[in-house]
TrEMBL record:
<dbReference type="InterPro" id="IPR036569">
    <property type="entry name" value="RpiB_LacA_LacB_sf"/>
</dbReference>
<protein>
    <submittedName>
        <fullName>Ribose 5-phosphate isomerase B</fullName>
    </submittedName>
</protein>
<dbReference type="Pfam" id="PF02502">
    <property type="entry name" value="LacAB_rpiB"/>
</dbReference>
<keyword id="KW-0413">Isomerase</keyword>
<dbReference type="InterPro" id="IPR003500">
    <property type="entry name" value="RpiB_LacA_LacB"/>
</dbReference>
<dbReference type="GO" id="GO:0004751">
    <property type="term" value="F:ribose-5-phosphate isomerase activity"/>
</dbReference>
<comment type="similarity">
    <text>Belongs to the LacAB/RpiB family.</text>
</comment>
<dbReference type="GO" id="GO:0009052">
    <property type="term" value="P:pentose-phosphate shunt, non-oxidative branch"/>
</dbReference>
<dbReference type="GO" id="GO:0019316">
    <property type="term" value="P:D-allose catabolic process"/>
</dbReference>
Amino acid sequence: MRISVSSDMDEPVARSLVEELRRRGHEVCVYGALEPGADPQWAFCSEAAARDVPSGAADLAVVCCWTGTGASIAANKVPGVRAALCTDAYTAEGARRWNDANVLALSLRLTSEAVLKEILDAWFAAAPSEDTEDRQNVAHLGMLDAGRAPRSRG
Ligand SMILES: O=C(CO)[C@H](O)[C@H](O)COP(=O)(O)O
């Protein structure tokens, strides 16, 4: 799988993320503080990595910042992106299963090396749900992106 990874901080867990993905056989492209000479601001590097997913340059992006919030907010501004901030394996599995998330957002502060591996295991093991309501929800996100969403049913 081709995976784009961004981080606004050169933290050990961000380096471990890249190493772990490469160890698992993925092709990794890095942005932000992980890329020599690049702009390490969270909104910019998260956007750059996230854009690779709808453009087709990557199959998945993982965006990181200290809290994970800025990275996920920036990624979710990119049309076609469904970024999920995951702090544990259960959330990662649900993000793939129920949200068909295509960008994983991580908090550099909260994610230990052990939890990182658990999150990656859960993320890659899960598949998007075929349930009709789950597909309707994900389709609704696409409509919101396109500005064509019908009025919310609340
Ligand atoms: O979590 C973040 C954004 O959501 C950033 O990583 C955090 O704001 C970086 O802070 P600083 O530039 O002061 O090191």
